[in-house]
Amino acid sequence: MVPEASEGAVLVALKYLYPATVFLHFFAASLLASCTLQALKKSQSARPERPSRRAVIILLGCFLLTYVAQITVLGTQSIITKSAPIEHALINYLSCILVFGILFIQLIESETVGSSGKLGNGSSYGSTAQNETASSSNSESPWQRRQREGRESLEKRLEEEGNWFEYAKGFTTLFPYIWPVGNRNLQLRAVAVILCLLASNALHLLIPRQTGIIMDILSQSSRSPWAAVIFFAFLRLAASESGIELVRSWLWIPVRYYSQEALTRASYSHIMHLSADFHESKTPGDMVAAIYGGNAIANAIESVLLQAAPMLVDMCVAIVYLSITFGPYEGLITAATGTVFMILATRLVAESKSASRKRMSAWFRENSIRNSGLTGWQTASAFNQIGFEDNRHADAVTNRWLKEQQYLLGWSVSVAFQTVVLTVGLMASAFLAVFRIHNGQATPGQFAMLLMYWAQLTAPLQFFANLGKNMSDNLISAERLLAIMKTKPSVKSKKNARPFKFISGEVKFNDVRFSYDRKRNIVDSVSLDVPAGMTVAFVGKTGSGKSTLLKLLARSYDVQSGSISIDGQDVRDVELFSLRERIGIVPQNAILFDDTIMNNVRYGRITASDEEVFEACRAASIHDKILSYTEGYETYVGERGVKLSGGELQRVAIARAILKQPDIVLLDEATSAVDTETEQQIQSSLAKLCQGRTTLVVAHRLSTIMNADRIVVIENGKVVEQGCHSDLIAADGRYADLWSKQTFLKPQDEVNAADELDDTNTAASDSCSERTTTETCELQDESQSSSVSGISNDKSATQKKCQKEGSRLNPVAPEFTPRATMMTKSESKSANAAQQTTSSTTRKTET
Question: What residue ranges are annotated as transmembrane (predicted)?
Answer without folding.
Answer: 16-35, 56-77, 89-108, 304-326, 332-350, 408-435
